[in-house]
Specification:
There is one protein chain. The chain has helices at residues 22-38, 54-60, 79-93, 104-116, 231-240, 248-252, 283-286, 318-334, and strands at residues 9-13, 15-16, 19-20, 42-48, 65-70, 97-101, 121-125, 127-130, 137-143, 148-152, 160-164, 181-185, 216-220, 243-246, 273-277, 294-299, 312-315. By secondary structure, it is of the alpha/beta class. Bound molecules: flavin-adenine dinucleotide.
Amino acid sequence: MDFQDYKGVWVFIEEKDGVIAPVSLELLGAGRKLADKRGVELGGILIGENIKSLAATIFEYGADIAYVYDQPIFKHYRTESFMKALLDCSNKHKPEIILFGATSTGKDLASAVATDLPTGLTADTTELDVEEETGLLLASRPAFGGNIMATILCKKYRPQMATVRSKVMKALDPQPGRKGEVIEEKISLKEADIRTKVLEIVKETTKKVRIDEADIIVAGGKGLGSAEGFQLIHQLAETLGGAVGASRDVVEAGWVEHARQVGQTGVTVTPKIYFAIGISGAIQHIVGMKNSGLIIAINKDSEAPIFEASHYGIVGDAFEIVPILIEQFKKAISREEVSHVREV
Ligand SMILES: Cc1cc2nc3c(=O)[nH]c(=O)nc-3n(C[C@H](O)[C@H](O)[C@H](O)COP(=O)(O)OP(=O)(O)OC[C@H]3O[C@@H](n4cnc5c(N)ncnc54)[C@H](O)[C@@H]3O)c2cc1C
C-alpha cells in the first residue's frame, strides 16, 4: 500500500455552547507528541455554528492547523451532517491519524466515519504511540476483560483512527498567543438531506455524581465487608472533603451507585490523591486510577497487586488504620495543616 499522500495527525474537537470538551484538549496534547515524532503537523477539526473563534484556543493547546466547518447546519450534533463534513475534510486533506474523545459524540462519529471511509477504528484506547518510520499508530487498550493490554494496528488503511478515554492523556499547558493556520471549509448540505431533526434539547435537572472532577478520592473495595463497613470510606472522604469512589464489586453489592465505580467499566479518574482501601487492585480497577497524582493503598494482604500501582502502601486492617487516619487528619485540619478540598 502506498500511503505517501497521507500526512498529519488530527484531533476531532468536540464543543458544546462554545466550550471545547476537556478530552479534545487532552488529545491535542497526545496528538502533538505523535505529530512531533512523525515530523508532521497537528490539525484540529472544528465543526459547528459560530465556532471559528475556537481555533485560537486549539492553537494555544498545540494545534498547527484548524480545519473549520462553521455553518448553521452544524448547530447541533447529528451523525449524518458531522460525518459528511469529516469525510469531506479527510478525503481532501488526507490525514494519517484521526483521534476522537471516547465520549458519546466521539464514539458515534468515529464509528460512522470509519465505516464510510472505510478504515479501522480502535475504540477506548488508553495508550497511544506511533512508529517513527512506518507511521503505524500503536493504539493500546485493555482486552479480554482487561487481563491483557492489546496494541492494535491498522496496517492496510488510512487514516488510522482511535477513540481515547477522557482523563487518560494530558493536555499541554496553553501557550497564550501561539498561532496557527485556519483553513475554512464548506459543504453544500441542505436540511432536507439530513434524516435526523433536533426538536428540543432537554437539560438534565438531577445533579449527577462526578467523581472525575474531585481532587481527592477515597475509594473502597470489598475488603470493607458490608455497606455498614463501607461507611468508614464515607467518613474519611468527608473528613478530607473528597469524593467516595468504589470498586465494581462494591457497586454490584449495592453499597454505592454505579457513578462512583472507578475502572474499565466505570469512570477514569486522575485526582491529586487517591486512597484505595480494601481494594485488591485488579487490572480493570487500575486502568481507571493509575494516573492519579498520589496513590495510597491500605490492604491487609501485603501481596495485593494494588501495592504495585501505589506510591504509598499501608499493610493492615482498614478498620484499625482508617479511624486513626480520620483522627489525625481532623487534628491536622483543625491546626490548618491540611486544607479542605471541595466536596463532590
Ligand atoms: C470485563 C470486566 C470489567 C471490570 N470492570 C471493573 C471496573 O471498572 N472497576 C473495578 O473496580 N473492577 C472491575 N472489574 C472487576 C475486577 O476484576 C475485580 O473483581 C474487582 O475490582 C475487585 O474488587 P475489590 O478489589 O473491591 O474486591 P476483592 O478483589 O475481593 O479485594 C478485596 C481486597 O480487600 C482486602 N481486604 C479484606 N479485608 C480487609 C480489611 N479489613 N482491611 C484492608 N483490606 C482488606 C483483601 O486483601 C483484598 O485485596 C471488572 C471485571 C471484568 C471481567
